[in-house]
Amino acid sequence: MENLIALLIAAPLLGAAVLLVGGRRLDAVGHWIGTLLSTASFVIGAVLFVGLLGRSADDRTLIQHLYTWIPVESFQADVTFRLDQLSMTFVLLITGVGSLIHLYSVGYMEHDERRRRFFGYLNLFLAAMLLLVLADNYLLLYVGWEGVGLASYLLIGFWQHKPSAATAAKKAFLVNRVGDMGLSIAIMLMFTTFGSFAFGPVFGHVGGTSEGRLTAIGLMLLLAACGKSAQVPLQSWLGDAMEGPTPVSALIHAATMVTAGVYLIVRSSAIFNAAPDAQLVVTVVGGVTLLFGAIVGCAKDDIKKALAGSTMSQIGYMVLAAGLGPIGYVFAIMHLVTHGFFKAGLFLGAGSVMHGMNDEVDMRRYGGLRKYMPITFITFGLGYLAIIGFPGLSGFFSKDKIIEAAFAKGGTEGWILGGAALVGAALTAFYMTRVMLMTFFGEERWRTGSGAAADGHDGHGEPHPHESPGIMTIPMMVLAVGSVFAGFFFNLGDRFLHWLEPVTGHSEGHSPVSALTVTGATMVCLVVGVAVAWAQYGRKPVPAAAPRGSLLTRAARRDLLQDDFNHVVLVRGGEHLTRSLVYVDHTLVDGVVNGTAASFGGLSGRLRRLQNGFARSYAVSMFGGAALLVAATLLMRAV
Amino acid sequence: MNAAAVHSLWTTAADPIAKIDAPKIEYGQLSPILIVVGAALVGVLVEAFVPRKARYHAQLFVSAVALAAAFAAVIALAADGYGTTKAHIAAMGAVAVDGPALFLQGTILLAGLVGLFTFAERRLDPEAHGNRVDSFAAQAASVPGSDSEKAAVKAGFTTTEVFPLLLFAVGGMLVFPAANDLLTLFVALEVFSLPLYLLCAVARRKRLLSQEAAVKYFLLGAFASAFTLFGIALLYGYAGSVSYATIAQVVDGNVPNVDPALADTMGNDALLLIGAAMVVMGLLFKVGAVPFHMWTPDVYQGAPTPVTGFMAAATKVAAFGALLRLLYVVLPGMRWDWRPVMWAVAILTMLGGAIVAITQTDIKRLLAYSSIAHAGFILAGVIATSKNGVSSVLFYLAAYSFVTIGAFAVVTLVRDAGGEATHLSKWAGLGRRSPLVAAVFAVFLLAFAGIPLTSGFAGKFAVFKAAAQGGAAPLVVIGVISSAIAAFFYIRVIVLMFFSEPRPEGPTVAVPSPLTTTAIAFGVVVTVVLGVAPQYFLDLANQASVFVR
């Protein structure tokens, strides 16, 4: 059975190769090839899943050794895949949600003349992400990690003719590089500490290693996770990444990319468990990010950017849970999976709205769309209820568990983290209700003559909202089903817990408050959030032009000044640094290099004069050489 | 009375004459050499008896068949285990049949075959008086520019003697790395050197330069041979034998029956040291090591380019083969004496070749200095004195040969009114005008520079690794430094070809016949295959790296 694992990656990789190499001949069928191979990967994943279920819980780790990649003495890197409950979960999420997004893109990208290439990149994205979660050592994981970075760069900048898209792609790539540095340093530290970077030896040797070392490795891994998962302080790329086509946003936010950081932390649980300081930093990062993202999400008028803030916040929940240690790992992954369903559904819904609204993204120019797009409204609505944690739906189960776990951390930390998670829940309810109300309810603000829309922006004239074709709505419906039932299904008899426990381990914390109290508090927060949003956006008409807003609102609109901060601290500082380095390079390094080159050139010019063309001179040189040779040989014996 | 009885009436029986044992010759094991030398003799007969018009085709046929058959014979011997388990010394102790010998003979034969294709190329120059012409003079004996030369051109003469000369040279080269006594070594040296001197002199274009090159090569070669011969005499005086095995024994301190005539000199270490140094010097001359390299640029530049390519490749293979055998079989007992000296020679050769190449302006001279630098790199592998050293040198030689022949074959294609346009300035912008030819040449240059994924990298890595393991790490450092210097002038040519504006009166690239195309294509294939998947050939060289004693 383990021989199937490589096929999981091979299928989308083949798709990427065929689509990108095949050229225009495949333009007509390219999207179907891409969708087919992505689905094939999902089917293989399902077969493997059934196979795993047929085994006992302790025997669900499959290893496939493909070949030895870098055999250099003690530096041994193998191409080996590990399929266990953790990677299996990711495989199903990636290929399942990924395939749905493929299907959706067939409709969404129908009028794009580079659709074949788009599907090639999508397949590449899946292949890289699968490699990331299936690798059995950190170096191979790093290959997938970089592959994800590359694919995201290509997809975010897919509409490269737009300067904003090209810039966003570059920004995502550069910010991710910072995280990648963290991962590479972590791998180097592992190699020097454990003499290996394969999962088995690394986790096996954690016991006898100093905590300082482990904390360093953990922090570097966290830095890597921050980059890919858009956590503070490397969060700035996520909002701009909305420049990519909407299916890309769905893919990045739900199935791939941002989940990679959570995977990395949970996969490295052995290291983090032994490094409490690193764990504390992880929870702090998660807690800060969940509030940061939620606040940003509250202020955005761009539907995709509001959802992007929401992603950041939800991933913050997962990172927070992952930082809690064994009490949180399972719930981090569970929230990741349920979030995969409803966030993909929300993004596809947002894409569907844009599709019907001439690619308008400003929610202030939406309103009352529920009449025109009933399917989108219902599926989006179910995703909305799921994300705010409406009782019975997916988000309720997974988020509630994380909040409980945060309190269960114990002590002051537990109170602070739990409090942050509760506030986050209220904020989530607020901003998601706001999105829902501004988009689907209220008066129709997109009609010509109503407010700012009168100028007929983008030259499209008045939009005519309409429901999207079936090929787009079907994936949305499937995802809506997942958003509704996944949490309940996972939670039934702690199924998900028992499934994942052998890999991540699990322990119950000692919560100072009872589970029921936490649930109650969460419900209160939920109601407060919804009510405030209703008061502000449901009862009153939404102004077409954004009001000036409070200081916090204005800051949140600018992503809490993240770019300003980066510009002042990093860009300016970097510019100074590079300028001085360039100076050193020009004067010192180039001086040495050019000086060396010039001196060799001069030497060459002088030496070549020995080559004067006279046979007699050559003979003399030979004679001299022979004499020296003889003399030197004799001399060697003498000494 | 029977006849014997009558006979006895007027004769008396003398003492029976002491019988001379007929030498036992293993013809089968010597077949590669015998085929090539036999075909060379056939070639002489072809010159004598076949009509002028048919000679070119007859000679080409005979030479190609002979080289291919000899190569097949080498393969058959190797497959039969003569390179490994059955390795032994044939022909009464004169010739070794072992792994290194067979590997190098195979390389020389392939290089000879590829070289033959470039020799036979007749489509590059425009036809003269309706006759196709090759790179060789119409009549080598005519004075350049004289009426007799013009008459010879008009009559459509060609110097088809180059083919048997090539075969003789190959024959000598086959014996050279296999020679197992000093006299065979010397005879082989002369057998392959003399045809090369002649071949250098018969260029069709720039004949004065060609003749000057030949004379220089001959004079200096004779000078070096004299050293070698004197060294052989001293070694004989030291060991009382010219056989490698015996000399090695004496070096190791086991003097068998002392010859009374040599009792005074045998075992005298001064004779050994001086003699060994002189024989080694003769071989270093052939490989073009500093300070015995001065002939190389002049001869490489003056000789007809196909000859240069063949000579640069095959001579190096043969001479390094002989040097390896001498140092590893005869003189391992005095390696503490010769290693430091060879260190110095290797350093001088690597740096000297690389540094002087920087300021060259003629592509053939540039390649000549490059070949000097490469001789230094190979010497680093020789100095390793280990099995890895042998195998790395074998691999390097095989890799280097075909790059060299290919590179010089490309040089024959770039022409202007005066023949080959060898001045570097004329190569500017070649990549724009003939991207394929320039790209192929770039591949060869990258291989020379030792860039990964070319055979040059695999070879350089192998010799440097062997040298480092053999305790010559400083040599490796210097080797890498000279590689860096050398990379400069290789890359400079690439930059010149691809990133300079073409000159309006620049050269044209001739369209060659399938012969030269084959030679170049073979070079490219070997370069890439040995660069991308060197392991099989490294293993092969490793299996072939044990000398028989």
Automatic annotation (TrEMBL), chain A:
List the subcellular locations.
Endomembrane system; Membrane
* Record's keyword terms, sorted: Membrane, Transmembrane, Transmembrane helix
Which residue numbers delimit the NADH:quinone oxidoreductase/Mrp antiporter transmembrane domain? 135-417
Domain named NADH-Ubiquinone oxidoreductase (complex I) chain 5 N-terminal: which ranges?
69-119
Listed Gene3D superfamilies: 1.20.5.2700
According to the record, the segments passing through the membrane are 29-53, 86-106, 118-135, 142-161, 181-202, 246-266, 278-295, 315-337, 372-394, 414-437, 474-493, 513-535, 618-636
Query: Membrane topology per the record?
Result: Multi-pass membrane protein
Q: Which PANTHER family match?
A: NADH-UBIQUINONE OXIDOREDUCTASE CHAIN 5
NCBIfam families the UniProt entry points to: NDH_I_L (TIGR01974), PRK06590.1 (NF005141)
Question: What's the protein called, per UniProt?
Answer: NADH-quinone oxidoreductase subunit L
* Organism classification: Bacteria, Bacillati, Actinomycetota, Actinomycetes, Kitasatosporales
UniProtKB/TrEMBL annotation, chain B:
Its EC number(s): 7.1.1.-
Q: Which domain of life is it from?
A: Bacteria
Q: Does the keyword Translocase apply?
A: yes
Keyword Membrane appears in the UniProt entry: yes
One MF term in GO for this entry?
Answer: NADH dehydrogenase (quinone) (non-electrogenic) activity
How this chain sits in the membrane, per its record, is: Multi-pass membrane protein
Q: Which residues form a coiled coil?
A: none
Membrane-spanning segments: 30-48, 60-79, 99-120, 162-179, 185-203, 215-239, 270-295, 307-328, 340-359, 366-387, 393-414, 435-455, 475-499, 519-538
Its subcellular locations are: Cell membrane; Endomembrane system; Membrane
Catalysed reactions, semicolon-separated: a quinone + NADH + 5 H(+)(in) = a quinol + NAD(+) + 4 H(+)(out)
Q: How does it assemble?
A: NDH-1 is composed of 14 different subunits. Subunits NuoA, H, J, K, L, M, N constitute the membrane sector of the complex.
Q: Which HAMAP family match?
A: NDH1_NuoN_1
Q: What does this chain do? A: NDH-1 shuttles electrons from NADH, via FMN and iron-sulfur (Fe-S) centers, to quinones in the respiratory chain. The immediate electron acceptor for the enzyme in this species is believed to be a menaquinone. Couples the redox reaction to proton translocation (for every two electrons transferred, four hydrogen ions are translocated across the cytoplasmic membrane), and thus conserves the redox energy in a proton gradient.
Q: What is this protein called?
A: NADH-quinone oxidoreductase subunit N
Q: Which organism is it from?
A: Streptomyces tropicalis
Q: Please name the taxonomic classification of the source.
A: Bacteria, Bacillati, Actinomycetota, Actinomycetes, Kitasatosporales
Gene name in the database record: nuoN
